[in-house]
Amino acid sequence: MSGGALEAAAFFVLAVLTVASALVVITHRNPVVCALALAFHLVGIAGLFLLLGSQFLALLQVIVYAGAIMVLILFVVMLLNLGEETRAGSHGRIQAWLAPVLALALAAVLGKAVLSGPAQAAVTPGSGYGTAGTVGQELFARFFYPFEVLSLLLVAAMIGAVLLAKKRV
After folding, report:
1. Which of 34, 46, 123, 152 pairs as cysteine with 58 (C-beta 3.0–4.6 A)?
2. Residue 95 lies in a domain
3. At residue 123, what are phi and psi to the nearest 5 degrees?
4. What pLDDT was estimated at residue 22?
């Protein structure tokens, strides 16, 4: 098997893993299973970064998202004890007919995009793509404030989950 064929096979396997695990996240009713499927999805994304030649971003993906953020999500899920809510059978009627309609609309848009062919030539990343220096430069120069806002949002979400769990006890 040549290098290009091996890379294409690895891409296909990772693509199937990420799409399948994303489908499990949105279709399964157990929040713990959804969180574990999300962890598989994030590891698959890290594999796609490796195929792009960005080892540093793949490492960050595994450590930060599949590691730390998943521990935070599982902690909040366990803290909230969502077992009672998932077993309750009352769901909205609007979602029952709106979900298939939106899924068909998304499938139509994706089908049109796939059948119309490539919109532009393949973009090759620059020489410093995915290295620690370029990621740090972008993070602490251009995306400093959005990064800080996101960290505050995560802290606020965790405090809210703790307060919700405390009221139930």
Report:
1. 46
2. no
3. -95, 125
4. 93
Q: How many domains does the chain have?
A: 1
Q: Tokens for 110? A: 């994706």
- Helices 70-80 and 31-51 cross at an angle (nearest 10°) of 170
The CA distance from 162 to 165, in Å, is: 5
Neighbours of 34 (CB within 10 A): 18
- The span from the CA of 43 to the CA of 29, in Å, is 22
Distance of CA 52 to the CA centre of its chain: 18
pTM score over 0.85: no
Span 62-119, pLDDT tens digits? 988 888 888 878 877 777 765 555 555 556 778 778 888 999 999 999 888 888 876 6
Q: How far apart are CA 21 and CA 36, in angstroms?
A: 9
Classify residue 115: in a domain, yes or no: no
Q: How many CA atoms lie within 13 A of 157 on its CB side?
A: 12
Per-residue model confidence as pLDDT tens digits over 57-67:
888 889 888 88
Report the distance separating Cα 149 and Cα 98, nearest Å: 33
Contact 35, 79 (CB under 8 A): no
* Confidence at residue 110, expressed as pLDDT on a 0 to 100 scale: 87
